[in-house]
Amino acid sequence: MALRGILLALLAFAIFATHDVIIKFLGGTFSPFQLIFFSSLMSFPLATFMLMRDPTEGNLRPVNPWWVISRTIGTTVGTLCAFYAFTVLPLSQVYSLLFAMPLIITVLSVPILGEKVGLHRWAAVVFGLAGVLIVLRPGSADLELGHLAALTSAMCSSYGSVVVRRIGRQERSVVLMLYPLAANFILMGLALPFVYQPMTIEQLGLIGLIAIFAFSAGLFLIAAYKASEAAVVAPMQYSQILWATVFGYVLFGETMDMPTMIGATLIIASGIYIVLRESRGRSQNTPVLRTRQRSNTPGAMRVAPFLRRGTQPVSQPESGS
Fold this sequence. Notes:
The chain is mainly α. The protein has one domain (2-308). Helix content is 71%, strand content 0%. It is built from 13 helices and no strands. The chain has helices spanning 2-27, 32-51, 65-88, 91-98, 101-113, 119-136, 145-167, 173-195, 201-227, 230-233, 240-252, 258-282, 304-308. Helix 1 packs parallel to helix 11 (240-252). The longest helix is centred in the middle third of the chain and has 27 residues, at 201-227. It is globular. The model is unreliable at 310-321 (pLDDT under 50).
């Protein structure tokens, strides 16, 4: 069963990496505002089909409105920053910086969840942040707005994940899914008149693929977590750096330089160590292990409700689980 979970997770993250390649390809022509608007629009039908299976009674008013609003803001900003970063930076650099999420989640879990972080995990955080500095190499390379965007996306996505850990059992999944999706649609729609470029049918089809890939990758990730322990599945996200290297070289002529390689290695090692410490009972809240989805993808499926309800998928798609 462990091998099945690993293979399913590898497939899920390969689909996510392909999803990001399409963003980078289209980002050379279109604004991130336009890409997010249309990908959110095309995610609504998929979300609707899943919501039809929700048996939970209630309304769409959040139980914790301020937490939901702050998470929605964070998720929206994180999505915009991720789309922009994929457009202007090499794929390997974007992934290296986004992989800092476990480190940021560990830090944020202290004030938000009351998590007690021991010396070992603090050391892993420092170790991983050193890797971030190596990737950025301030002073020896030009830092671009894309680097700031990738780090901002990692921080916003981490915040959203920790908030879900705090309020997820009190809020309906439909609330946690629809608010960020609607915010992306409305806010990007307001910006659309200022950045809109006409799109061909083929380009609209590629945006449709962004929504479909996010949705389908979520399904495979749900299956992976059902087949194997979280500590086995979670590290598979780092396989995206391999896809970034291959896709970047073949499609965009990118190469991973030595500082990025060294920094990514430190960041990944730190993230895996934190996952292992949490899986061995070194964490009260296991915030990193509970982060089972990418929150910088409109319409991505939220994994946790499917796992809580057993084998019958009756919950909804949502980002940032």
